[in-house]
Amino acid sequence: MLPIVARMQTFVTIFLGIFIEAAPFLLAGATISGLLAEFVEPAWLQRIAPRQPLFAALIGTLLGLVFPVCECGVVPVTRRLYQKGLPLASGVAFLLAAPILNPVVIASTLAAYGWSSMFWGRIGAAILITVVVGALFHWAEPESVLREVYPHHHHPTAVVPVVIEGVSAVGGRPVHGWRFWRALTVAGDEFLEMAQYLIIGCLLAAGMQVLIPQSALLAWGNGPVLSVAAMMLLAFVLSVCSTVDAFVSLAFVNTFAPGAVLAFLVFGPMVDLKSLLLFRQVFRPRAVAYLVALPLLMTAILAIAYNVWGG
To answer: Is the pTM of this model over 0.70?
Structure first.
């Protein structure tokens, strides 16, 4: 078989694998977003949302325990929560934390590693990073962070009209019935909008996997610093769904330093190729750059420290 044909077959196989793995979770996130749009009143969310930076970020991090969405499904949910008036810090923390702290991922990590330091390291690092990054975003202006500046971020106590799919509502209360079916309609529109960017992200991830030989990355597996860089790059390129990445990482346990495996488990769910394009639908380019750079730097520092002192 010609090498180019073999590579194309590999590309198609990898693309379909990533897309089929991610699409159900994007659909779940879109469904949750539709239900939030229809059944959660902005005034209620604004009333209970904390305003202190660290507390707001911590609440956003803990929201990951409530919504079982991975890195694909979390983006439409985050956008909908912003539309409902969620503080900026809480939304950023939730966006980064949910792919690691949701119950499905916690259960899969426990099944793969048991009650080990790797399990607790993943949970602890995720909480620390998401709270710090979320709190840092507290002082940013919504205009410089969000693609759309929602009314609730300008006037937190105001009750403003909300338009959902051409149906007017005031204070989150719809004018007429069929709320559940309208929620599903919103979910369908959300899914179709996000799916096009998911497809592009999957194509890029598949292309990178075909073009970059994993053997080159595996050659960096022993050093305390280079191993971390290699595994973070691998996590970004592979774009493995966070619900199964713990089992994927087991293949590298005997090859890479422990801190590098930890970096794979922490950074990959927060930022990968396919989620990067989805971020662009909520955040401005500069904010996306910070959403990549801050978790990357914090994960690298924690992982290298784990290699030097804890591994």
So the answer is: yes
Query: For 124-163, what is each residue's pLDDT tens digit?
Result: 999 999 999 999 999 898 889 998 766 656 544 333 333 3
Please state, in angstroms and rounded to a whole number, the distance separating the CA atoms of residues 301 and 52: 27
Query: Do 260 and 290 form a contact (C-beta atoms < 8 A)?
Result: no
Rg (CA), the chain: 20
Q: Token pair of 71, please?
A: 């890195």
Alpha helices, DSSP H, located in the chain: 3-39, 42-48, 53-63, 74-83, 88-101, 103-113, 117-136, 142-145, 179-211, 214-218, 226-238, 245-249, 258-270, 273-279, 285-305
Collapse the DSSP code of 167 into the 3-class scheme (helix H, G, I; strand E, B; otherwise coil) and give the result: strand
Give the H or E element holding residue 168.
strand 167-170
Pairing mode of beta strands 167-170, 161-164: antiparallel
The tens digit of pLDDT for each residue in 10-21 reads: 888 878 877 887
In the sheet with 161-164, reading across from the earlier edge strand, the strands are: 161-164, 167-170, 173-174
> Bridge-partner residues for 170, per DSSP?
161, 173
